[in-house]
Specification:
There is one protein chain. It is elongated, with a radius of gyration of 29 Å. It has a 9-stranded mixed β-sheet with strand order 6-5-4-7-8-9-10-11-12. Strands 1-3-2 form a 3-stranded mixed β-sheet, covered by helices on one side. A hairpin with a 5-residue loop joins strand 4 and strand 5. The protein folds into 2 domains: 72 residues, Ubiquitin-like (UB roll); 130 residues, Rossmann fold (3-Layer(aba) Sandwich). It is 35% helix and 27% strand. With 242 residues, the chain is of the alpha/beta class. The chain starts with a helix and ends with a strand. 17% of the residues are buried.
Length: 242
Amino acid sequence: MKSSTATILSTSVLIGCIITLLGFTYADKDEKRITSINISIIDDVNSKFLTVPRVRTHLDSYGKIIGELKKDVQLEAIHAHLTNIPSVLNVTIFSNFNGELVIQLVQRRAQARVHLEESTDYYIDELGGSMPLDPNYSARVPIIHAKNSEEVNQAFLFIKKIENDEFWTSLIDQIIVHPLGELEIIPRIGARVFLGSSPDPDELRKNLLTFYRAQIKTGNLKNYSRIDLSYKNQVIAKRHVY
């Protein structure tokens, strides 16, 4: 009986100590202040729209954060403020036990630059959303020439199909969308290549490479002004007229 009573008393004391410690922990947490801000940009090698100094400058316009009690810092408001940066895709924000506010940002990746006839140029990102040009950084991406958003989407669908294709991504400098949705590319070197509508990148790559290799062997590649791949299993090339 005495042993049982002692066990109950010991358990009660232990629980009491735990509750007391938790109380001190939460009280201490409420009194903690933000002492520093740690900002990091995820995958900042392939794109430079976001930099830590630029994020800090934007964060300065939010208001005071360092020195504020952790319980008073509105994480959702800071999150919303940071997502107002045009090149931000996603934000993760939290405070740790050291009083550090940790901010991790993922930046949007420009897939192409869009040039419309009567509008300001803009980028189109990996999700198909538009984002403004950046005054400090220019992405090396294809330029889409189109008249409207529907035509832009035709080119964007092709770009998404070839985003992991080294041949096409190395070749294409600009994409022209014709009125019927037909695509024509201006390569970094050589003649324009007409792809037609709903092009199949794999099939066209095979035909174009076959043509390139044959003309390189004979030294005639420079003689052509336009290459047409729109006919199935055919390559029709137009020579320069001098």
